[in-house]
Amino acid sequence: MVIFIRGVVFIIMLATTFCAFFKKDGNAESGPTIVELSRAQKNNLDRIEKYLDEIISLRAKFLQVSSTGEISKGTFWLKKPGFLRFQYDPPSQILIIGDGTFLSYIDHEIEEIRHMFLSSTPLGFLANKKVRLKEDLVVSKVENSLAAIRYTFRKKSEPRSGAITLVFSDKPLKIRKWVVIDAKGIETKVTLSNLETGVEVEDTNFEIPRKYFVKDRAE
Asked: Residue 144 burial by CB count (10 A; 0-12/13-18/19+): exposed, middle or buried?
């Protein structure tokens, strides 16, 4: 049961953050909704968009920590356009796959699978063929230091709803972490390590195991 709960934290983060981004009654953190960027901050945002846009494939270890106290870790793969995979380390039996259209949450322990549209998740933009941060999002907070660049984004159509913060190291620019806050105010931090870009990733990594196809299970 503990393993199930820890795995579910991530999918809850994905689903309810979507609600926080798009529900009119979202109860995410208060604070400034839009900030006026300086020229340097605009330049950094341009660099970030270009950096994310140029990533074709990626592999990294991740550590996921929720404000509820749940901790999980595993390996993350990205392959554009549209493919994501979060493989949780044993003894967890959780697997999350984005196949270009859907994001599928798989719990091997209880043989359960759930789906949502990849485009409805706050991380869906990372897998887009073309990353366009400035078209759909607004910046609500910027925190730059010698160690990190942090931009907090909100949905342009509803800037007072939920937020996602992307954290980068600089020189060279590299994504290190994302932080999301869902409709209930639960914060989930995902920190990346051993990050590699331009890696070979087989398409089979993003295939749903056959036993989860309804037709196969009925036979």
From this structure: middle
Q: Please give the share of the chain, as a percent, with pLDDT higher than 90.
A: 35
pLDDT at 157: 63
pLDDT for 59 beyond 50: yes
Q: To the nearest whole number, what is the mean pLDDT of the chain?
A: 79
Gap between the Cα atoms of 90 and 20, Å rounded? 31
Q: What is the pLDDT of residue 43?
A: 93
pTM of the model: 0.79
Residue at 99 is within a domain: yes
Would residue 111 count as lying in a domain? yes
Query: Which whole number is the average pLDDT over 80-90?
Result: 91
pLDDT at 145: 84
The CATH number given to whatever domain includes residue 124 is: 2.50.20.10
- Can you give the residue range of the structural domain that contains 150? 2-195
3-state secondary structure string, the chain?
A: CHHHHHHHHHHHHHHHHHHHHHCCCCCCCCCCCCCCCCHHHHHHHHHHHHHHHHCCEEEEEEEEEECCCCEEEEEEEEECCCEEEEEECCCCCEEEEEECCEEEEEECCCCEEEEEEHHHCCCHHHHCCCCCHHHHEEEEEEEECCCCEEEEEEECCCCCCCEEEEEEECCCCEEEEEEEECCCCCEEEEEEEEEEECCCCCHHHHCCCHHHCHHHHHC
Q: How many domains are contained in the chain? A: 1
204 lies in a domain? no
